[in-house]
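Entry: Structural maintenance of chromosomes protein 5
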Amino acid sequence: MASAGKRKRISNVTNTQPSNNGAGSSSGTVGDGQVTGFVEGSILRITMQNFLTYDHSIVYPGPNLNMIVGANGTGKSSIVCAICLGLAGKTAILGRGDKVGLYVKRGCNKGSVEIVLYKAKGNLVINREIHVENNQSMWMLNGKHSSQKTVEEEVKALQIQVSNLCQFLPQEKVGEFAKMTKIELLEATEKSVGPPEMYDFHCELKTFRTKERELENVCKEKASALEKFKQRNERNKHDVERYYEKKRHLDNIKMLEKKKPWVEYETARKELEGVKKAREDAKKQLKTVRESQAPMLKKIQHIDSQLRPIENQMKDKTVSIREASQKCKQKQDHLDRKHREIEDIKQAFSLKQTEAADRQKRISNTRRMIDDLREELANIGDQSDVTPRIDAVNAELRRIQDEKAKMEGEKADLRREKDNLNGECRLLKNRLRSLDDMMKIKEEKLRGRSKDTYAAVQWLRQNKHIFSGNVYEPMMLVISVRNPDHAKYVENHIPFNDLRAFVFQKREDMEKFMMEVRDSQNLRVNSVFAPEESCANRAPSRPIESLKRFGFFAYLRELFDAPEEVMSYLCNQYKVHDVPVGTDQTKTMIKTVIEEPYLKVLYTAEEKYSLKKSFYSGKTSTSNSAVRPSQYLTMAVDAEEKRQLEEQIRTAEKSKQAIDVQMSTMQERTAKLDRRDNELRAQKKVLSEMKGKKRQLEQKISTKQDSLRQMEQGGIDLQKAEEETKAQISAVNSQKVAIVAEFMAHMKLRAKLSMEKVYMALETVGMTAEKTKLETDCRDGSAELRVLEQACAMLEQRKARLLEMCKGLMRRAREICNMDPGESAVPPDLHTAFSQLPDTMDEIDAMLNEERSRAECFTGLSENVVDEYNRREQEIKNLEKELDEKSNALNTYRQNISEAKERWLNPLKQLVEQINDKFSDFFRSMQCAGEVDLHSENEEEYDKYGIRIRVKFRSSTQLHELTAHHQSGGERSVSTMLYLMALQELNRCPFRVVDEINQGMDPVNERRVFDIVVRTACKETTSQYFFITPKLLQNLQYADEMTILCVHNGPHMLPPDKWDEKAFTRRCVRRKGK
């Protein structure tokens, strides 16, 4: 109860004295002093100052069940908000305004909430002062300034969790409980009623399991890599052995190649010593033979000195003879050229004779052709004139050309018209394609938010024919907002569950759809059916013109287009025809606007206002929230525009088809005209040829006569040509006589020189014979000399070669053995190796060939294979070491998991069994069935564990899991309430709050649930419980441990100083007695 206007509403509740307050009760509290029956962390007192609907109010709850009762709008939920915000809860938990400043009473600059929590060692007083201007809070803890974090830590230490739906369930979050996943429900239950360490053990298990999976994957990867490396090395092991065997052969080859130059050098050196000795012996024999041959050699040299001048003279004669012969040849060539010149003169004369004969033949043929043309000209001279017939054909051709030109003009007009239609079609199709693209974007947004709804849309498009009435896809796809800036109002007004809902004209179609999609395909979808009587054109409560003075420009229905059934549903369900939309002007005049009658919901530029009028007091309460930005309706697709575009495209296509028919007809007519034109042109050509043939004959005769005259005038004089030919031949013969005389002179000179050369040759023969005889005599005596000279030369050459060979072999041997240039002895290490190898070249070559043959047998081997093998061996050792370490770590984690699992799972199973026993008992008491179990698809996946609630409210059905879609709203409320009551007796949290959960229940279930709540929450072993409701059934069972808090708040209530609780009780007893 409260005073009118701004009077303070104070609640002072005791268990002995009645009070005049805003919330009355009977409880086990005694002021703020000694308390009894409260558990650690229970609420002793709630003080609200300028908070929501309260000016000032104090609430004293009891230690057990607190039943907060009051009419709608009196401020019951305000107490819930005070508990949440006073205990450092977030505004998002309440589901109301997102700014804490919105919870200060309208017109005030600041408000405060003070909560006193019971603690055995001294109560905890938390005070939160909220400032509207900067949307900030000031905290005080036991009268001292503090921070929000410190308050949160103190609250958490008392096991208070206002963010846990199992402990704190505001009115706006009742539906969220059924939407919780099994995993979320398990975590909330652990936090709410489990031992303090249970949730920590669960988190620890999940962390251990994550690390275990990581280690398992690492061990698998390393074991797999280790096995692969071992397999690869096993495959390469034989190649490595072969490589080393090949290397041994190559080392032998290398050592043999090092020894080979030393053996070669030693062999060459010994051979060089033998050659030097043989050369000295040969030189001594050569000297002796030369001394015996000296006299004969001297005589031969004297004959050579006499022969040399004669041989020089013979050479000179030979040169002169060659010159004379050359000159004779030149004169002979000159005579041959003169012979050919005479032949050319005779051939030229013969060609002139042939040309004269050909000219006479051409003249004869031309005369014959002229006679034939004259005869043909005489034959056609009497034919009729064809000019009139040609004129008639020309006239017909002109007529055809005119008709074709006319048709071409018509065809050009049709082509232009068709091009225009094509361009129009392209524009229309582009616009239609852009609309389809926008629809696809909206569909993608729908799929991103609800894959099940998207799948149902695809199914509907393929099976639309099975429905008898109109069926519409989800509203977000068929609603077209006229201005994208206004989409946010439509989205904020229509919940997303309805935006993704299918709309049906007939209920039987909706049932058929849900049976197929939800029950058969297990898709989570929403569906609604339109009212039987259309509400799409329902008139608003008052014309929009009467509201324009406040800045309103339209009703919500006028901001978007939708099919009639969809619009009818929205008008009926959400009153879109009666929700005005305003501007910033509306915001500035909001105090005046909310006093206007008939307004229940309205929008300013950035906020939504909801107005509720109290049924009891008639006072209007207002709540506001920020308008969220649009997510789904910004891309507007105008269905009517799309239909008009499709109709325009069909009309244009039909016009194009008609034009094509006309074009085809005109093409056939043009083809006929072309054929007639070709016929007339052929006829004209024949007539023109007849007309021009006589003129052509006359021209040909004239041409042939001119040609005949030219041939007769251009004749050749053969007699004159013959005389010129003879003169030319005579001149050439004179030149030939002079050339022959010169030729004979040169021949005589050559003969003379030849005779002189013969005489000199005879003289030389005698001297040569004497020299030959001397040489023959000397040759027999000097055979031994030549042999010795050759032997000496050969030995000298061989010595030089062997010396160079020795030097080269020594250099090569030093280079191969990496010796210094001055060294000549084999190093000791090589000497030892050389001693085990053959000492002869043949044996070394044989052994080299054998080793090379063996080495060549090892093909396809590479040093990289060995390097890779050795590197992989090292990696195998490293991997084995790492695998041992990881395996040990994995075993340690598994041991930790096993220990943590035992600490967590067994108590959890016991806890769930206790909850199930209570939950099942509660349902059995209501003649229904329900059970709670610990659900997990895989026992080792600790992050997949969850609590599954299954219920059935009719004996003919099976147990179904509690979801946000399968059960009705009342059934969900009953299940939620009974689950919370099952948690109540386990009592780890100090208090629980449930706000208006009984609103969706039928009277039978509400009565049963109320009885269970009273029995459970009033036990001595349970914690504090807050049950908020706007109404109660009659004749309910109550308990002495209950605390009834009646919220009297409004302008028509009695002032606090006039409220008499005893008098009110007496009147109620008298009224009941009557």
